[in-house]
Design goal:
Elements (H helix, E strand, L loop, with lengths): L7 H4 L1 H73 L6 H14 L2 E11 L12 E12 L2 H13 L4 E11 L2 E13 L3
Antiparallel strand pairs: 1-2, 2-4, 3-4
Helix pairs in contact: 3-4
């Protein structure tokens, strides 16, 4: 009797069936388990991108806030300087002391200072700090024009806010008489 040789398929039939079955089971597991995992991964990636975008915007806002905080400190310092430059009603005498010191240092002697009162429509409160403009006539004498000029320049540069709106001069011999109209601002000390 002649033995029939087994075909290659017959020899490895069980191995092929086990391999094919494993492949089918693997595909089923991939679709059952892997598909939801993949969807979760994609959703997590999308949420992560959104949160990164939000984080970048928040970091940008934080930098802006830090910048604004430093600007706030600068504005507070400027506010302190402005308030120092604006005397209160009861500190108006310091304005005259400063005015006279600057004038005297530059060779201008002050004879008198008279208040003209509030200036125009600015007399009413101009802010919540009740700042108002007041005008004064200052009468003085000097020996020369350069003294007057230096006094005017230094008065304009002074810490206190002064506006010299009118200068009337008359000379008699070596003496130069001066009448200045000076506006300043005062705040009520409420």
């Amino acid at each position: 009797m002649v033995k029939k040789e087994k075909s290659l398929f017959d020899q490895y039939k069980y191995a092929v069936l086990i391999g094919a079955g494993s492949f089918v089971v693997a595909l089923i597991l991939i679709f059952i388990i892997g598909s939801p995992l993949w969807k979760d991964f994609k959703e997590s990636s999308r949420v992560l991108k959104e949160k990164r975008a939000v984080l970048l915007k928040l970091e940008e806002k934080l930098e802006n806030l830090k910048s604004l905080k430093s600007q706030e400190e600068e504005l507070k310092q400027k506010n302190i300087k402005v308030k120092a430059a604006l005397p209160t009603d009861k500190d108006i005498s310091r304005l005259f002391i400063q005015f006279e010191n600057i004038a005297t240092q530059n060779g201008l002697s002050i004879d008198s200072v008279t208040e003209q009162g509030a200036v125009g429509a600015v007399a009413e409160s101009t802010s919540e700090d009740n700042v108002r403009a007041v005008s004064y006539n200052v009468t003085g004498n000097t020996n020369d024009y350069n003294s007057l000029k230096n006094a005017l320049v230094n008065l304009e540069k002074a810490l206190r806010i002064l506006n010299i709106s009118k200068v009337d001069t008359s000379s008699s011999g070596d003496n130069l008489s001066v009448i200045l109209t000076v506006s300043s601002y005062v705040r009520s000390d409420k």
